Amino acid sequence: MKYERTFESFRDSLEQILNLPVHSSDDFRELVNRWTDIEDQIEEELGWRYIRMTLNTENEELMRDYEEYYEGVVARLKPLLHELKEKIVQNERYAPFGFEHMLKVLKNEVELFREENVPLQVEETVLSKEYGAIVGGITVDFMGERKTLQQLSVYLRDPNRSVREAAWRKRFEGIWTKREELNVLFDRLKEIRHRQALNAGFSNYRDYAHRLKGRFEYTPEDLFRFHEAVEKEVVPYLRERLKVRREKLGVESVKPWDTEVDVDGKVLKPFKNVEELVEKTERALVKIHPTFQERFSLMKEKGLLDLENRKGKAPGGYNHTLPKTGAPFIFMNAVGRPDDVRTIFHELGHAMHSFETLHLPTLYRPERMEVAELASMSMELISMEQWREFYESEEDFKKAKIEELEGTLTFLPWCVIVDAFQHWIYTNPNHTAKERDEYFAHLMDRFNPGVDWTGLEEEKRTRWLFQLHIFEVPFYYIEYGIAQIGALDVYRNYLKDPEKALQDYLRFLRVGCSSPVDEVYRTAGAKLDFSREHLREIVGFVAGEIEKLESSR
Ligand SMILES: [Zn+2]
What we know:
Elements: H1 7-19, H2 25-55, H3 60-90, H4 100-112, H5 117-136, E1 139-142, E2 145-148, H6 149-153, H7 161-176, H8 179-199, H9 205-212, H10 220-249, H11 274-288, H12 290-301, E3 305-308, E4 318-320, E5 329-334, H13 338-357, H14 369-383, H15 394-427, H16 433-446, H17 457-462, H18 468-472, H19 478-496, H20 498-511, H21 517-524, H22 532-551
Parallel strand pairs: 3-5
Antiparallel strand pairs: 1-2, 4-5
Helix pairs in contact: 1-2, 1-3, 2-3, 3-4, 5-8, 8-9, 10-15, 10-22, 11-12, 13-14, 13-20, 14-19, 15-16, 15-19, 15-22, 19-20, 19-22, 20-21
Bound molecules: zinc ion.
């Protein structure tokens, strides 16, 4: 599997490309094609190394293989790749029709580039990795055993309330042992980021990050409108749902450790083993669209699926594009839970996106997360109509659907808290650690759907310490909320007219990121709309679907 291309060989090819004369639109096209080819080779090699590493985390050599390649090849090629981007921008006049959006994105990158920010970005990357090391290394005693914070999360679903509470409290006990260290780390990250913004001519990192992410289609003010829309339209509905939860659980108030447990005390079992998961997924896919099933079978035959949970595998799930293989790889940790059904269709949404965009130039692949997640989240929701393959009884089928639909909305308050928190942090860079915690607690209250935090003030103000994104990938989170609303638009269309909605979805997949996000959303039949009116419509739709399912149970 190892096809090696060294830094030197990539460098030589890139230098060749940088010397290519450009005198015509054909030359311009050739430039972009060769750039795409180089990026594809890098992505393919990095992809396999990433896959091997996550399949066997106990093998340190595989981790070194990945890191060596990243640091020794990928990171070192960045300055040359930047020069290539500059060359493309400089030859703008030769660009044929269809490259307008690419040029816009590249010009933005070139404009924001500052030589003095390069070492700062390296420092930021190295520092932000410390978060994972610190939090991953925390262990606490729980029921006579040493547990990591991640292992404790499982107990938040335990039917025994005192077990849930104990696990929940232990998680905070654990993270508090590193509270000081995490705050110091975060302050350093914040300063490095702020300096990069100043170097690039911005007054704060928030505005800089917004531009860096190429968010031309919406402003920070639009996001504030989105936060408010969630507060005013989503939270009140969730408050109603929480009352139902309180009654079903028979508790006086819903404490933070009561939000994840199943209210009926029933655990759904959609499949017994991975063979069954694959078989049922194929049967569902063929009913959605035969092409989806054909591709899934192809991935299976080519050994591009690793689905079952095993000791030594990294947690979570992902879809990795492998441009030279011509098909992606799906990784997950299936154990037979409803979450796994959701995950496989989510990743399959990404996978179909990979297949459909392989022919596009590198920059037009699903780079923007608002777009990538619309593909995966829409597939999740559309697939729901075929979940009878997994849930034989009508009762279980309905229960699974209600959980999925409810989940689309319960995620939103946390999503906007994480976003609003970062807006505040980076536009008030001189705050103290204490002020930061206080502002976070204020947001927790503002978006609280009725969870009882009485007596848990210290926990409430420090909950952000668990959120990796805040440390490692600033401002990357709200995309999930945006895509979730878009996916509900797509699903609503699908229920009205499945054939048309699916045609739109396929067209959307093929477009990739070759035009601005709002246009791409329109292709899918969704709206990029942050208004209260739009959210009211969406919440009304979800509430109506849940009501239909519940009243017919
Ligand atoms: Zn995803």
